[in-house]
Every structure is written in structure tokens, then in C-alpha cells.
Amino acid sequence: MIAAELRTMPMHKLRDKASLAIAYAAAGTPVMVFTHGDPSAVLISPEETERWIAIERSLSALHGLDVYPELADDTASLAAVVAGRERPNATAIRRLAREERQILDIPRTIGITHIQRRLASILDEVAEGRPTTIYSSGEFVGVLITPAEYYRLRKLSRVVAWFRTAGLELATADEAAIADFVRRFREGRSSAAESAAG
Questions:
Q1: Tell me: the pLDDT tens digits for 68-82?
Q2: Where are the domains of the chain?
Q3: What is the largest CA-CA distance in the chain?
Q4: What pTM does this model have?
Q5: Does residue 115 surpass a pLDDT of 60?
Q6: What angle do the packed helices 147-166 and 46-64 form, to 10 degrees?
């Protein structure tokens, strides 16, 4: 899970013990790889990658309903955003539309044996914004993303948790469920406001 405690690993250790890093990621612990003391990539599991691709689709569906949870100042204001009482300005929406979402890019694919032979060049390509999927024995076993993308997703995990608590699982919801959630949420908030006024 993106929000889980992060492990760190220098590049040379990843080169020598890639299977260990992949085991951490598979168990839900992201691994940040350091090159010369600087973070250069974060290894997550393919399942976590798929989960975030689904979440990004759900966020896009919310945008179609004029709901932009990523632009909320904090989770305390998300109810007002979903209810339609707080609306972002057009500049903020345009900025959000231009924001990179590397998790959605088509990754390049490498075999685990390539890590030992050319890890430095692989990390250079990841740093340029291209996610890389690692496979072993015919299965995808890990995905390398930039630290910036990791922190973007980690920040978004609070939004995902808020929606889960409110009754919508962004990782599994379809467009109809999202539209129904927003409609019911707005009707419920409207009824609550009318009762308070009455």
C-alpha cells in the first residue's frame, strides 16, 4: 500500500538483492531506491499500480460531475467539495488537468535479470518520468515510479480514505456508482441543511 511505512534501499543493494525488494513491495511495503544519497525511484507492487489506475479512473469520473477532490485544501473540506458548496476556480482545474499522472503511462517492461546488468540506466529512465514494470518467470512482480509520483499518490491516499469512510471505494466503483454516490450525498446534505433551518 502506498500509505504503508516506506523502506529504503541503496541502488547497489537493489542490484544485488532485487528479489528482496520485490518481496517487500509484494507484502505492501514500498521501497525507495537511493542513488548517491538521493531518492531515484520507488518500487511498488503491480497490484498497487492497478489499484491506483482504477482510482485515477474514478477521480476522472468525479471530475465529469464537477467534483475535484484533489483540489480540496484538506480532507475536512471534502464534504463541501462533494456537496458542491466549494468549487475550485478555472485556473486550478486547468492546472490539475496538466498534472502528470505517471501511474497511467504505459510502462516499459524489463526482466529481473536486467536489474543486475543495467540498473543505473533503468533508474535514469524512471527519473525522466517513465514507469518501469519488472517481470520474472512470466509474471509482473514490481513497478518502479518516481519519488514525485509516489508522494503524489501518498497525498491522494487521504482522499481515497475519506471516500471509503463516506461509503465509496474509489478503487472498485464504476461510473454509475460514483454518480449515485454524489447524487445521494448532495441530497442527504441538502435534507440535513433544510432540517437545521426548519
A1: 999 988 889 999 999
A2: 7-197
A3: 72
A4: 0.88
A5: yes
A6: 60
